TrEMBL record:
Pfam families: NMT1
Single GO molecular function: ATPase-coupled transmembrane transporter activity
Similarity section: Belongs to the bacterial solute-binding protein SsuA/TauA family.
Role description: Part of a binding-protein-dependent transport system for aliphatic sulfonates. Putative binding protein.
GO cellular component, one term: membrane
Protein name (record): Putative aliphatic sulfonates-binding protein
Domain Solute-binding protein family 3/N-terminal: from-to ranges: 127-356
Amino acid sequence: MISYLRDILPKYKDQNLLKPFRSIPRRFLISKFVVQFGIGLASSLVLSLTFNSNVVATPESGHVLSPLISQVNQANPPKNSSIRLLETVGLFVGGIVFCIALDRWFSDRSAQLGNTPLAQQARRLKQLKIGYPEGMTNFEVLRSQALLEERLRPFGLIVTWTSFLSASALIEALSNGTIDFCGGGGTASIFSQAADHVFVRVAKEKYTAPKGQAILVPEDSPIQTIADLKGKKIAFDKGSSAHYILIKALRKVGLDFSDIDPIYLTQPQALSLFRQGEVDAWVVWVPYTLTQARSSYPGRSIADLGSIFGDRASLEVPTYYYAIPELVRDYPDLLKVILEEVNEAGAWAKKQELEATQRLLDQHEIDPFILETLQKRSAERAIIPIDEQSLDALQHQANLFRDLDLIPERVNVKDGTYSLQTKQNWTY
C-alpha cells in the first residue's frame, strides 16, 4: 500500500489538490479533523474489542471440547499470528471505510457551504455597506439584532452601517459608491433619477405608518388647519416625501404651492428655526422608532399621512429599498438574502407592535378596528416586490414635480435601469 501511494502521489504533484480546501473556513476544517479522529478512534476500539473477544472465545471453547485441541493451539503460534494479521487488516480496512464515508460527508457539507452561488458572491463582495435613515423600523431591528451579520458570517462577509439625514443623501451615496444598499422615501428617487444618479429600486414596504409624517406648528400657533397655511413660511426638505405631502395637502384644501412661502431646509436645520419661531410650520418625517432626538420634536400636528391620503397612504408615500446596479446584476443571491432579512425584521417589528397594542387593549379603550388592522398586517409580508401599481403612483409624483418645474425633465420610473420588477419570492 505504501509503495502504491509512493507511486501515484507524483502524478498529482502539480494538480493543486489543496485548492478546494482553501475556500473552506478554518473552523470547518478543524471540526472535520476532530470528528474524523474521534469516530476513527471509536471504530478502531470497537473493532479491536470484537477481534479480542473472538480470540478469547476460541481457546475457551477449545478447552471445553478437548485438552488436546488446547495443546495444539498453544503449540501452533502461526494460527494466533494469522488472527492478529486479520485483526490488523480488519482495523485498517475499517478505518479506510470510515475515512471515505466521513470524507464524502464532509465534502458534501463543504460544497454546500463553500460552493453555492451565495457563498461565492459573499466572498467576492467581502464587505456589504448599508445606509439607513435614523429611526427606520426595519433597519433598526435588522441592525440591532444583527440578522444579516449572523446569516452571512459563515461566508466571511462584513456588514457595515452608516446613518444619513435624508433619503436623497442615501441615494446620492449609492450613486458615488459610498454604500451598496439603503432604504428611504420614494420621492427622493424621482429627484435622484432626474439628476442622473445611479441606483435601482428593488423593493418597497407594504404599509406606511399613517402617522409616519406630519405637518407641525408651534404649540401656541393660531394655525389650526391646512387652509390656515396660506401665506405662511413652511420648512421642509426639498425633494423629499415631505415636499410631495405638502403639495397634496395644499391641493386638498384648494391651495396651490405658490400660495405658501417654501423654506428648503434639512431636518436638523428646520428643527432649529422651528424652535426659534422663524418658520410657521414644518413638514417632518416622524420615524416609526422614536429616537431620543426625534421624540423631543416641539409643536403639534395639524395633519398627517392618514388625514391627507386616507387608506392610500402606503401607495402615495411609499418607503423603497435601493441598491447599486452591481448588487442587482452580479450578486443576485446576496440581494435575495438581504431582502429576506429585511422582511424578517419587519415581520418581527409588526409582531411587537401587535403585542403592545393587545396589552394596551387590556388596560384602555382602543378602537377594535386598529387591533384588527394590526392583526392582518402582522400576518403579511413586511416588504414586497415592486409592481406596476407602485410605479404608477410614483410616476404620478414624478409628473407632478415636472409640471411644477421642480425637476428639469420628465422621468420614466418604470425604466428597468432604475426599477427592478421581479416575481422572485425572496421572502420566507
